[in-house]
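agent> Task received from the user: take the single chain below, predict its 3D structure, and emit structure tokens. No templates, no multimer pairing.
agent> Plan: (1) validate residues, (2) run structure prediction, (3) serialize to tokens, (4) report one or two observations.
agent> Step 1 OK, no nonstandard residues flagged.
tool_call: predict_structure(input=
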Amino acid sequence: MPIVLSWNVAGRVRSVDAQAAALAARPADVVALQEVRASALAAWNAALDELGLVHRHYSAPPAGGPPERRLGVLLAARDPLEPLDAPPGLPWPERYAAARVPGLGEVHALHAPISAKAGRVKVLTLEAVTAWLAAPRGEPSIVVGDFNTPAYESREGEVRSFARTRTGRLRDGYDERHDAAELGLVCGLADHGYVDAFRTAHGYAARDRSWVYANGKFGYRLDHVLARGLEVEACAYEHGPREAGLSDHSGVWADLRRPA
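)
tool_result: status=success, residues=260
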């Protein structure tokens, strides 16, 4: 059964070998890496070859762009993959990579901008991705990555975006559109057949975080695997590499299979 693994590698260049060693501890059939700098791509290609992930598709950042535009997304697979188009209207298209993988279906990888970035790039990104993935696609679809949302999930299944306070009030500088964009991806795709692999495997009683403040006392589950047309056998976060300082994010993996 295919293992899909997603990890935000935090734009590291000198840590690629150590990060690749961490990936080797959780062998996967498809890997989606976010925050891969162009200057680290050669090192990643060599490391992924060693892991048997010899088929790759990289969404390259624009040359000479500002700092927030220097991070790309890298998809790697054991089997040949066929690159797919990104959703139209993405303000930062280098934050998205997609490919068709034989025996699995479409794999889409996203690194959403944070809320503070100018020009509503987070809202525009999440709206475009949600609309693109909601459409019927004729084969199983997976979307993984660092979505930079939600801010909170209760044990009863309530999900809150970063646009709202704990009491539900809109924060200063945010609006209903921002709230809807965040929830549209992490919750709204359920209306179009997608399941949250982690919640499917563990329910909402499970408490886990993929990004944690330096004091280790609080964080958010920002990294996700959503799947449509596939059954979830298992899903979990890999906290060891984050705790070892290899990234500020934990990776997330899911064991998925086509229905019998």
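agent> Step 4: summary for the user.
Residues 3-257 form a domain with the Deoxyribonuclease I; Chain A fold (CATH 3.60.10.10).
agent> Done.
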